[in-house]
Amino acid sequence: MYYNLLSQVKNAAQAKKHSMILPFSRMDFEVSKILVKGKYLKDVQKKVINRKNFIEIKLNYVESQPAINDFRIFSRPSRHLYVNYKELHPVKNGFGLAVLSTSKGIFDNREARKNKVGGEYLFEIW
C-alpha cells in the first residue's frame, strides 16, 4: 500500500539511493505519479521483469538533500478520513502536498480543489 511506499522512498532517499524497485500495484503507481508531478520524485516507470510487474522509482534531490523531508498518513485500513473539497487547505503554507483518493482518481489537494471533488484524505508530504 501507499504507506509502505512512502516509508521505503523516504528511507531510500535518506540513504542517498538514486533509484529503487518495488512490486507493482496500481495504487502505488498512481501515488508515485502524483509525487512526480509535485517534484518529490524524478521519474516513475512500470517495468516487467521475468513476467512480473515492478515499479522503478528515481529519487529526486535538491542540492544533495532529499526532496522528501517527512510525511503524515491520515487514512489507514482501520480509520478512513473523508473530506469535502471546501475543507482542503494548503499543506505547510503551500510547500507541502496532500493526496486524496476520489471517485475520479487520485488527486493532490490543488487539483481536487480545482475540480471541486472531495474524497479520502490519504496523506500529506513535505
Layout of helices and strands, plus pairs?
Blueprint: H1 2-14, E1 19-23, H2 26-37, E2 41-49, E3 52-59, E4 61-62, E5 65-66, E6 71-73, E7 82-83, E8 97-102, E9 105-108, H3 109-114, E10 119-125
Antiparallel strand pairs: 1-3, 2-3, 4-5, 6-10, 7-10, 8-9, 8-10
Question: What features would you describe in this structure?
Answer:
- The chain has 126 residues and is α+β, with helices and mostly antiparallel strands.
- It folds into two domains: 65 residues, 2-Layer Sandwich (Ribosomal Protein S8, Chain: A, domain 1); 55 residues, Dna Ligase, domain 1, CATH 3.30.1490.10.
- The chain contains three helices and ten strands.
- The radius of gyration is 14 Å and the shape is globular.
- The mean pLDDT is 96.
- N-to-C SSE series? HEHEEEEEEEEHE
The shape is globular
Q: Please work out how many helical segments DSSP would assign.
A: 3
* Strand elements, count: 10
**What's the N-to-C terminus distance?**
19 Å
Radius of gyration: 14 Å
Under CATH, the topology of the largest domain can be stated as: Ribosomal Protein S8, Chain: A, domain 1
Low-pLDDT parts are none
Q: Structural class per helix/strand content?
A: alpha+beta
> What kind of sheet is the major sheet?
5 strands, antiparallel
In round numbers, the mean pLDDT is 96
Total domain modules: 2
| Proportion in β-strands | 35-45%
Give the helix proportion (percent range).
10-25%
In CATH, what is the class of the largest domain?
Answer: Alpha Beta
- CATH architectural type of the largest domain: 2-Layer Sandwich
